[in-house]
Automatic annotation (TrEMBL), chain A:
The chain crosses the membrane at residues 21-44, 64-88, 109-137, 149-170, 182-203, 253-272. The keyword Phosphoprotein does not apply. It comes from Cytobacillus gottheilii. Keywords: Membrane, Transmembrane, Transmembrane helix. This is ABC transporter permease subunit. It comes from the Bacteria.
TrEMBL record, chain B:
Gene3D superfamilies: P-loop containing nucleotide triphosphate hydrolases. This is ABC transporter ATP-binding protein. It comes from the Bacteria. Keywords: ATP-binding, Nucleotide-binding, Transport.
Length: 282, 311
């Protein structure tokens, strides 16, 4: 391990993270939160089912529940893990010394991001045994499982980059956190609300669900929403519904990928640019 | 070598640095003195590529701090006035981290780190967590960190502030050792005597302007045209006293308690002083010693800042 020098900042971040008791506590609470809900779900199901058996449709339900829950937890944790990575070094007065080394700004920003992402991945990996339930009873394909995990990774990178950007731009960690949480709440909750609202508008215009007035704005709200994008991979009908109302045929998951790829690239680019003072201008 | 040309830094309408000009030759120990808020840290931050100047330029070993910041970073070891440490790292891991940040390979660091810890007298703390070290130890560890990539220039912002006298002396001894290693050292302080002993060159900054620059003696001369001189004689006390009393540049002639020493204030130039001594010899006065008082540099400093405030 000692010879395995990946990158100084990454190496240091890993060391600090896994020496901190908080990190383990975090994993524990994460699994507890997921586990309790799963057990509760199974318990309620078995009450309503006279044979106490678990059917494949219910297994799919549980997979969806688990996955949406996991998404919610990830969206909840990511800003907290990333919105302090630079500003906290600034507050502890370690940033200046790091910036006077010959490490590139790119390497510092990416290491910070990768470090935070790695911890989130660890949480996801740790949660995998909970899914074994689902596979035990069938109803879910491994492809669906892999899609979901890939979706998590992508979403973590996107929201993590935004957190890193705020942490770079905003001097105080607390302000950066509030900003990052605010934006995440808007992107995860606000856009869902907007989508529903705008779609309702479409229905109301026509009065007839089969003959709706097109509301393209609903599409732009929906394409930014991670919950809709993920749910769409389970239940394509809701995507069809959005296509129906908005009149935009372009696949929603592709719009999600494209918009967040642009956001991620922009956030990383500006973080790198703003980490050190702009010297060339003078 | 450091060259600072018309360096200006503005925060809004406030000028923290006002057309600063400085030249520091290679191998010089330069003391940067000024009261709190004078602009020392601002100057050092610009040299360390952490702050962009509003106008003017600065060069470190010929590299422009704005155009070639990466090259400048290779040349300098920078110690900020206030700095923190990571609380879950041990002293040698701390140095490994910064060493790696300068791209030094692991094997090389393994050889280097014990030497550096030895230099700053922290060999026994190699496996201690850095946040548990005393302030003086942290300061020394930070100095070791500055040295890890063997920079030619050290920029140390108030390295002795907040240290107790013992830790101060320890820090000074280490700096002297670095001086013998031929490094160019820039060191700032708001207390002049702390620096005087070890500096070849001193710059005094006040409200963003360089108000005096030169060797300690130069500054002394420049700042006060007068010196306190002690003369010792074997005999002919009265004759000697009247000789000095007659000189137009001399005032306040006093006889000290030991009946052998005369003290007076001298206002003449160096040439006039030579002439005075020659005259005394021609007169055959039995002078055994003629010495300038080592003035307390802090007094000089107080005088400079007083002068600046008045104008
Ligand atoms: N970021 C900043 N914004 C506004 N004023 C600043 C800032 N940094 C420093 N100053 C001001 O610039 C002046 C010089 O500060 P500094 O270089 O830290 O002084 P010194 O290190 O000599 O004590 C001070 O008056 C300080 O208040
Ligand atoms: Mg300062």
């Amino acid at each position: 391990m000692k010879n395995f020098v990946i990158n100084p900042v990454l190496n240091k971040e890993f060391k600090l993270r896994f020496r901190s008791f908080k990190s383990y506590l975090g994993i524990l609470f994460y699994l507890l939160a997921l586990g309790i809900i799963i057990i509760g779900f199974v318990f309620i199901q078995s009450l309503s089912n006279s044979f106490g058996l678990f059917k494949p449709e219910e297994s799919k339900m549980m997979f969806m529940l688990l996955s949406m829950l996991q998404l919610a937890l990830i969206l909840f944790i990511t800003p907290g893990l990333t919105a302090g990575v630079i500003s906290s070094e600034r507050e502890r007065q370690t940033l200046n010394m790091m910036l006077t080394t010959t490490q590139s700004s790119t390497s510092i920003i990416l290491s910070k991001l990768v470090s935070a992402i790695s911890y989130l991945l660890l949480l996801i990996v740790a949660s995998l045994p909970l899914y074994s339930f689902v596979f035990l009873y069938g109803g879910i394909s491994p492809a669906q499982m892999l899609t979901t995990i890939a979706f998590y990774v992508f979403t973590i990178i996107a929201f993590g980059s935004l957190g890193v950007l705020f942490s770079t731009l905003i001097r105080k960690t607390i302000v950066s956190m509030v900003t990052a949480y605010g934006l995440t709440m808007f992107l995860a909750g606000g856009t869902a609300f907007l989508t529903l609202l705008l779609m309702q508008l479409g229905y109301n215009y026509s009065g007839n669900p089969s003959n709706v007035q097109h509301v393209p704005f609903a599409y732009f709200a929906a394409m930014l929403n991670p919950a809709i994008a993920l749910f769409g991979t389970f239940e394509p009908e809701i995507i069809d519904e959005i296509t129906n109302v908005t009149g935009i045929e372009f696949p929603l998951w592709a719009a999600y990928l494209i918009s967040y790829t642009v956001i991620t690239a922009g956030a990383i680019f500006f973080s790198i640019k703003k980490l050190r003072p702009n010297m060339k201008k003078g | 070598m450091i060259e600072i040309m018309n360096l200006t830094k503005e925060y809004g309408s406030f000028k923290a640095l006002d057309s600063l000009n400085l030249k520091i030759e290679k191998g010089t120990v330069f003391g940067f003195v000024g009261q709190n808020g004078a602009g020392k840290s601002t100057t050092f931050s610009i040299l360390a590529t952490l702050l962009a100047p509003s106008s003017g330029t600065a060069y470190v070993n010929g590299y422009n701090v704005q155009k070639e910041p990466r090259e400048v970073r290779k040349q300098i070891g920078y110690m900020p006035d206030f700095f923190g440490v990571y609380d879950q790292l041990k002293a040698d891991e701390y140095l490994h981290f910064y060493g790696a940040s300068y791209g030094i390979p692991y094997q090389e660091r393994e050889k280097l780190i014990p030497q550096l810890l030895e230099l700053v007298n922290l060999s026994h703390k190699r496996d201690s967590y850095v946040d548990l070290l005393s302030r003086g130890m942290k300061q020394r560890l930070c100095l070791a960190r500055c040295l890890i990539h063997d920079p030619e220039v050290l920029i140390l912002d108030e390295p002795a502030s907040g240290l107790d006298p013992r830790a101060r002396i320890e820090m000074r001894e280490i700096l002297k050792e670095l001086k013998t290693m031929g490094k160019t050292i820039l060191i700032s302080s708001h207390i002049l005597p702390e620096l005087a002993e070890m500096c070849d060159q001193i710059g005094v900054i006040d409200q963003g302007k360089l108000v005096a620059e030169g060797s300690v003696a130069d500054i002394q001369d420049k700042l006060r045209g007068e010196k306190i001189i002690f003369v010792k004689v074997q005999s002919s006390l009265r004759e000697t006293v009247s000789f000095f009393e007659d000189d137009p540049f001399i005032s306040n002639v006093q006889l000290m308690d030991d009946d052998h020493t005369i003290r007076f204030i001298y206002k003449g130039s160096a040439e006039e002083q030579t002439a005075l001594l020659k005259n005394a010899m021609v007169k055959g006065l039995p002078i055994t010693s003629f010495a300038e008082e080592e003035a307390d540099l802090e007094d000089i400093f107080m005088e400079i800042t007083k002068g600046v405030e008045m104008s």
